[in-house]
Amino acid sequence: MPPPVPPDGIDPAWLPPAAFRPLGSRRTLIRGRGGPLVETVYGEVAEACARFGGSVGWGGGAACDLVLDVAGEAGDDESFTLVRDADGPTTVTASGGRGLLHGLFHLLRLGEGAFRGRWEPEVHRPALPLRMLDHWDNVDVHPVMGQVERGYAGGSIFWVDGRARHEPQRVRAYARLLAACGINAVAVNNVNVHETEARLLTDRIGEVAALAAQFRAYGIRTHLSVTFAAPIVLGGLATADPLDAEVREWWGEATRRVYDVIPDFGGYVVKADSEGQPGPFAYGRSHADGANMLAAALAPHGGTVHWRAFVYDHRQDWRDRSTDRARAAYDHFAPLDGEFAANAVLQVKHGPMDFQVREPVSPVIGALPRTRLAVELQVTQEYTGQQRHVCWLGQMWSEVLRFRLDGETPVGQLADGLVGVSNVGDDPYWTGHPLAQANLYTFGRLAWDPGADPRRVLDEWIALTHPGAPDALVSGLHAVLDGSWRSYEKYTAPLGVGFMVQPGHHYGPSVDGYEYSPWGTYHFADRDGVGVDRTAATGTGYAAQYAKVWADVYESAASCPDELVLFFHHLPYGHLLRGGSTVIQHIYDTHFDGVAEVTAARDTWASLRDLVEPSRHARVAELYEEQLRSAREWRDQVNSYFFRKSGVPDAHGRRIH
Ligand code: GCW
């Protein structure tokens, strides 16, 4: 089967035809038993050869430059081995089609280098077995959230206006991009499961099966978000109590039917007792009871339940200083360690709040050693510029994955999986902002190897997306992407305090937008100071949820890292930070600097005009104007707000409104 071509006008992203030249201009032999994934590999090589003059054959014997050696199709083994003698051929060996496919994409990354010199046998295998992308796609257009909740790249590539799109070519092209960066699972609908979407599980499962067929061709398993109330809303039962025999039977039967049509179905994703979604609390049951019921339904078929830990009170009274949203996930889940089934995975947001530009690493990740755990990142840029701002998140994610909650083991080793909330839609560039493609690619590669240097991942992305890029383009792309997360941090909410966004859609500044709301997201600024006291001594006690190594660091403003200091402490404006400036001067300085950095990035991008395809260049250039406008708005609102509250002038006399 030939590889899918994205429909007309859709960007090839990191798989442009030219990336296949080194492979396609050589002679390849595929040895071993074929199966669907080996067919996919064959199709990829054959297409590349048709384009670039090489050849591909089955079997052995003939002289060749590349041998793809596969023992069989079977199994979940994703590893492959690469080896080469000085005079070739290059050989990729895998026990099955999954490994061979990853090996093929590895060769693409190596480019000409794959066919030069000697390679000692190198075994490649993913560090994390679960590398998943969650789509927050609705089937119906939701009156507030639209087709894709927190989607900034157009509509869903799966559904439109309540119907399946039936665009297998686009889905297959998407699956290919995901496989090429190492992703092996996709959940195809929003974790907020509304009425129409609930039915994907039952009478509309055929639509999911059609998507699964496309994903399967690239080694990706399909998952579904389900509502905990399904036995009531779909099955007509009086209860969804996870310990009720009829309920359990209903789930068992519904799950069996899913596997009838999707034999390799990955499993369920569940958001329960969170932001209005139903859950086990209604029946006085624990989240382990809830998760285990679904785990039991999935177990006979080899499926997994991803149970989200994003559980908190979203109807808080802002006057009540004893409730702390940051504490909630730990308070709910840490006591349940050891109670979850072997095929239940607790899916934990990387920070305790909600995908802010800066948060401490969630203490939940270190608190359940006997529970399988997936760390959830937000590839879609809800709070990081909504794909109108350049904000490459590789640096932030890497810091999270390397963080040692117990002082020893990095998060990337504690976790069994990494889950990203997708940033893809029906936009011609897939991701709205063309440079946001780098976030999706980086997510996949960090899931494969959480210890990878994110800047090297960016090198890969640049080389694949722009084959043969001149040095000026490579360094220009690094210049605009490498520091973009920190620039974004500088011109938005300061020192880890978070939020300060426009309520509802979350784009642009509104310092007090959430200050008197029920969502539990406060900064407590007054004329004397700002920040949230989360210490054990005088605050909410959140700091004590960490192991002692970190609890001690965060407990004291003197040792707490500056970038998190207002997350953990309420401080006077004159408080001297570790970096040497006061809180208020830091706010002014970073906001002026952040805007200057965006201006510089915009100018760098302008200088790349002759090196980037014109429509891509123009789109990014246009978006930079909006980013700059928005960054100035952030700067002026945040600086003016704190000047008015504190009355402290800028030490450098710059204009504050
Ligand atoms: O970040 C918040 C978003 C919600 C989202 C929720 C979640 C899907 O604002 O839109 O709902 O998190 O992660 O469940």
User: Helicity range of the residues?
Assistant: 25-40%
> Over the alpha carbons, how many angstroms does the gyration radius reach?
25 Å
CATH class designation of the largest domain: Alpha Beta
What is the count of β-strands?
A: 20
Structure commentary:
This protein folds into three domains: 17-124, Chitobiase, domain 2 (2-Layer Sandwich), CATH 3.30.379; 130-465, TIM Barrel (Alpha-Beta Barrel); 489-532 and 570-646, Alpha-d-glucuronidase, C-terminal Domain (Alpha-Beta Complex), CATH 3.90.1330. It is globular and about 80 Å long. The protein is α/β, with parallel strands linked by helices. 35% of the residues lie in helices and 13% in strands. A hairpin with a 5-residue loop joins strand 4 and strand 5 (90-94). Residues 136, 149-150, 191-192, 271, 310, 354-355, 382 line the site of 4-O-methyl-beta-D-glucopyranuronic acid. InterPro entries: A-glucoronidase_C_sf (IPR037054), GH (IPR017853), Glyco_hydro_67_C (IPR011099), Glyco_hydro_67_cat (IPR011100), Hex-like_dom2 (IPR029018).
